[in-house]
Amino acid sequence: MYTPIDRHNDETATLRLPCLLLPRPASSSSSGLRSPIDRRPAGRNFNLWRQFLTAESVPARPTRFLLGPETVPYRVCLGRFGVLPPTGVGCGSFSCQISQSAPPVLRLPCRAGSMEAKQRARHGDERRPPAAADGGGEEYDPWTAWFYKPHTISVLLVGACLLIWASGALDPEAASSQSSATSIKRGVWSMIAVFLAYCTLQAPSTILIRPHPAVWRLVHGLAVVYLVALTFLLFQNRDDARQFMKHIYPDLGVELPERSYGADCRLYVPENHKNKFINIYETLFDEFVVAHVLGWWGKAVMIRNQLLLWVLSVGFELMELTFRHMLPNFNECWWDSIILDILICNWFGIWAGMHTVRYFDGKTYEWVGLSRQPSIMGKVKRSLSQFTPAQWDKDQWYPFMGPLRFVQVLFLCVVFMTVELNTFFLKFCLWIPPRNPLVVYRLILWWLIAIPTIREYNSYLQDSKPVKKVGAFCWLSLAICIVELLICMKFGHGLFHDPMPTWLIIFWSSVGVTLVVFLLAWSWRNHLKYWRKRL
Fold first, then answer.
1. Residue 149's pLDDT is what?
2. Which residues, at least 6 apart from 218, have a Cβ–Cβ distance to it below 8 Å?
3. Which end of the chain is more exposed for a tag (fewer CB within 10 A), N or C?
4. Locations of Basic and acidic residues compositional bias (predicted)?
C-alpha cells in the first residue's frame, strides 16, 4: 500500500516516502557542487528511484532539493507515485525533511487529496470512482457516475428475462421441438454467459481500472472458463478431443498438412519466370508477418524492459530450432529466422512498443471529468483517453539484483515461451488450421490475461513482505499454461517419431549445467560477502 500522508489543510499535505540514503559517489567533488544521489523508495509500489532528484548535500537533514533543466520535473517525479505538487510549485527549489527513523522517511510536500485519490484508483474502490475516471475529486463526475454505481439487481432482472426468452420457459412445446444436440449446445453457452455475468458483477477487482474495472473482472471470468474447458479436454482421448472441436467449428476434426517454411531456402529461384524471388516474396507477404510485429509490440508494452524482450526474441528462435524435428512449421530458412524474424519483425515491434512505453511514461496524469471538459472535442478526447492507462508505472525487473531475482525473471521468460510453443503444438495435435478463428481468439484472450498478470507478477517481486502470494491473474496464467502443456504432452504421444538430434541434447545440457554453476557461484559469492560484513 502507499505510504500515508500528513494532511495539513484542504490544500497542502506531506507525503511520507520510505527511502534508503546512499553515500555521495566517490567521483563527486567536495567543492560544493551538487551531485546526483539515489533515493530508493521502499515497497512494491515505488519502483522509480534512480537519480530522480539532485541534492546539495548528502545526507543533510533537512535537505533542499533543486529542480532545473538537468533534472526530472517535480510534477513528473511525484506523478510516478500518484501525488501532485502543491499549487504553484514548478521548477525551482523546495525543502523536505528526512527523518531519523529506520528506515529513514523522505517527506515531500504534495497537494492534499491527490494521494487518497490514487489509493482509490489502485485498490478499485467503486464507492467513489478513481482519479482516472473522474478527475480525482471526492464526488462522482455527473456524466460518468452511472457507470461506477452497482447495478446488480437490475442486471439480475434483465438476465432473468433473457433466460426466460432463450430457454423457452414460457413456451415448453416450442423448446421441446429442438434436437438434443441443439439444446445441449445452447445450455452450455448460456451457462458460460451466466458465469461471466456473475464475474463481471461480483468478482474482486484487479489492480487495473481502465477502461472500467468490470472489463477486467470479465477477463478474469473468461480465463476461468478457458481453464475449465482445457481441463475437460485433458480428460478426453486424442480422437474424441479432435471430434469435440467440431461442436465449436464444424470444419474442424480433419487432418491438416503442415506448411514447411524451409523446404527451399534459395533467395534467387531462376527457374521461376514469374518471380525469381518467390521465396522472399511469399515470406514477406505472409499474413503472419503483421501478427508477428503486433505481437512483439504488445509484449513490449506489457514487459517494458528491452533486455527481457530481446531474451524472449532470441529464446523463441532457439525454441523453434529445438523443436523443428517435431513440427514442420518450425523448419525455417536461416534468413527467415535471423533476418526477417529477429532483425526486422521483432526489432520493429520492440522499437514501436518501447516508444509507446516512453510516450506514456513521460505524460503527466491529471485527469479531469468528462462534464468539466470545455469543448466537444475535449469531451471526445477524454472519452477516448478512457482506453489509455490511468497512470503509468515503469516496471523495474532488476534481473541481476541477486540469484533469486534472476531465477524469478528467468521463470517469467520460460512461461512466456511455453505459452507461445503451446500455440503451435495445440494446433498440430487438435488439427486446428492457422487461419481458424479459434487461434486468434486464444491469442487475444492470452493478451488480455497477460496485461494484469505482468503487473501482478512485478508487484509480487517488488513486495518486501516475508509472506506474500501471487495475484489471481498470475495464478490463472500459470494454471492455464500447465494444463495446455499437459494436453500437448498427452495428445502428442506417438505423433512425433523423429528423435531430438544429439547436438541439441548436448547444447541444452551444457546450457543447464552452466546456468546451475553460475547461480551456485553467485550465491556463494553473496554468502561470503554477507559473512565478511558480519565479521
1. 80
2. 196, 199, 200
3. C
4. 117-129
